Amino acid sequence: MVKITDVARHAGVSPSTVSYALSGKRPISEETRQRVEASIRRLGYRPHAGARALASSRSNVLALVVPLRAGIHVPVVMQFAVSVVTAARRHDHDVLLLTQEEGEEGLRRVADTALVDALIVMDVQLHDPRLSLLRALDRPSVLIGFPSRPAGLTCIDLDFKAAGELCVELLAGLGHRVVALVGSPPEVYVRGTAFAQRVVEGFTAAADRCGLASSVHPCDASPATARRVAERLLREQPALTGVVVHNEPVLEPLIDAFEQLGLRVPADLSVTAICPDELAENVRVPVTSVTIPSTEVGARAVELLMRKLGGADVPEATLLAPRLTERASTAPRTLTS
């Protein structure tokens, strides 16, 4: 059986360095970590999970808390989950996925049983009822999302407010004067889901700052609702020439609906979105978009958690600046629009 000393000898490092590479307890250089991982793969070393847990009083398991509530888009959530799992494995940790809506009681049960060393919490609400418990738990946590009062917590996310602003500023720069946000399903706003509310804040603030006429329209994730929203927009805002979409399932149905109603994209109507790049790129008319950096957010959430487990100080707030890519769905407003 391959031992940790065999890996250390093969990689040219000390056994303690191999241990640090596996546990993340202390920082090591990227070059050294890669050399250790190459030796582990070459020799087929498999650390004994039970012995490792006994030695460290840790389970080497992280909890990813992502309640699958109504209105969330599961494919995007799973992108975050895959990123968290992949990053956790680099630190020799497994991930326990908690998808039920259990609130404080569920979090406390997991923490009290010592099943996990730490928690990553998603689908954060502005006034999330889980926050008091997370502040009081003896296990570290990282939130993917920002509540209204994040003090005493560690939070990371895309700056969704700035993302909403960036989309509007692009449309304003192209000469559009009447814009609309087609947002998440109504229940997402009713819950006070933080990322959705931040987009509305940014969209509205930028529209007001740029002197644009604007409106916000929650939208169920169905083609039929997308059609009804498009009809309503053209009825209520006949001068509409710019749309921001923050609702992945309706992006293409919405473009189809507008074109069926006589508006060509982008000749008559410019469309921007906040969504994963792969979705924006593969719509029939490739969409100008702010990407949702699920891979980066998930990986950095794990890194923050590993540093907290190692006793290091971490920033309370990590906001990722939005990145906008222009594609075929946006163009300058024509004089007749």
Characterise the protein shown here:
This protein is α/β, with parallel strands linked by helices and 337 residues long. Helices cover 45% and strands 15% of the residues. It contains 14 helices and twelve strands. The chain has a six-stranded parallel β-sheet, with helices on both faces. It has a six-stranded mixed β-sheet with strand order 7-6-8-9-10-12, with helices on one face. Helix 5 (74-90) links the parallel strand 1 (61-65) and strand 2. Helix 5 (74-90) crosses helix 14 (294-309) and helix 8 runs parallel beside helix 10. The N and C termini lie far apart (73 Å). Mean pLDDT is 91; it is low at 50-56.
Helix-strand layout with pairing:
Blueprint: H1 4-11, H2 15-23, H3 30-43, H4 49-56, E1 61-65, H5 74-90, E2 94-98, H6 103-112, E3 118-121, H7 131-136, E4 141-144, E5 155-158, H8 160-173, E6 178-182, H9 186-190, H10 194-209, E7 213-217, H11 223-236, E8 242-245, H12 251-260, E9 270-274, H13 277-282, E10 288-290, H14 294-309, E11 317-320, E12 324-325
Termini separation comes to 73 Å
Q: Give me the number of helical elements.
A: 14
Biggest sheet: strands, sense, closure?
A: 6 strands, parallel
Enumerate the strands of the largest sheet in spatial order, edge to edge or round the barrel. 2-1-3-4-5-11
What's the count of strands?
12
Identify low-pLDDT runs: 50-56
What's the helical proportion of residues? 40-55%
The helix-and-strand class reads alpha/beta
**Dominant shape:** elongated
| DSSP strand content | 5-15%
- Give the SSE order as H and E letters: HHHHEHEHEHEEHEHHEHEHEHEHEE
